[in-house]
């Protein structure tokens, strides 16, 4: 039911003003709203629905914002990865023993090939050799640095 009444005559405006004054007076006295004539229960329902819709839209917007943040955030990457550290912890001594026997570029190539046969990439093999030399046998550091700086090291 529609509670909007058009005001066509001066008497209509007086009646509406009196009804509105009565509405405010009843509100001050604490008369329940459902007895109100100007502001009906259907307006309250509509207001509640609109409030619920606004909250739902806000929640959807925040969920979309969260998805965008997650999608645009960079993934965490360890450098070098844990597989390299595990391999170095297990076979770092063998890398140094091999470099003690073959302190040359050919020795580094051989170590890289052996590590690659175990399932690591050549990049990871280079990391294993570098970490092993830095931590266990620093006497071979100059050899590994010269290998890395040479053209042979860049293609290994």
Commentary on this structure:
There is one protein chain. The protein is mostly helical and 156 residues long. It has 2 domains: 10-72, no CATH class; 82-154. It is 72% helix and 0% strand. The chain contains 7 helices and no strands. It has helices at residues 10-29, 41-72, 82-101, 105-117, 122-135, 141-149, 151-154. Helix 4 crosses helix 5 (122-135). The termini are far apart.
What would the keywords be for this entry?
single chain, 156 residues, mainly alpha, 2 domains, 7 helices, 72% helix
Q: Which helices and strands occur, and which strands form pairs?
A:
Blueprint: H1 10-29, H2 41-72, H3 82-101, H4 105-117, H5 122-135, H6 141-149, H7 151-154
Helix pairs in contact: 3-5, 4-5
Radius of gyration: 40 Å
Whole-number tally of structural domains: 2
Could you spell the SSE succession in H and E letters?
HHHHHHH
Instruction: Report the average pLDDT across residues.
Output: 83
Number of helices: 7
Counting DSSP E segments of at least 2 residues, the number of strands comes to: 0
Large-scale geometry = rod-shaped
Question: Into which percent range does the helicity of residues fall?
Answer: over 70%
The rounded distance between the terminal residues' Cα atoms is 84 Å
What amount of the residues lies in strands? under 5%
Coarse structural class: mainly alpha
What's the story with the biggest beta sheet? Answer: none
Unreliable residue runs: none
């Amino acid at each position: 039911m529609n509670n909007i009444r058009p005001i066509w005559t001066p008497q209509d405006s007086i009646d509406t003003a009196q009804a509105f004054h009565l509405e405010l007076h009843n509100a001050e006295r604490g008369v329940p709203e459902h007895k109100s004539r100007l502001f009906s229960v259907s307006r309250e329902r509509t207001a509640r629905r609109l409030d619920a819709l606004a909250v739902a839209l806000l929640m959807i917007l925040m969920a979309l914002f969260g998805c965008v943040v997650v999608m645009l955030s960079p993934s965490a990457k360890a450098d070098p990865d844990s597989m390299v550290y595990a391999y170095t912890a297990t076979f770092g001594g063998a890398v140094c023993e091999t470099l003690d026997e073959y302190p040359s570029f050919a020795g580094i190539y051989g170590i890289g090939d052996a590590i690659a046969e175990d399932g690591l990439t050549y990049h990871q093999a280079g990391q294993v050799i570098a970490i092993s030399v830095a931590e266990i046998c620093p006497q071979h550091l100059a050899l590994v640095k010269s290998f890395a700086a040479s053209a042979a090291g860049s293609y290994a």
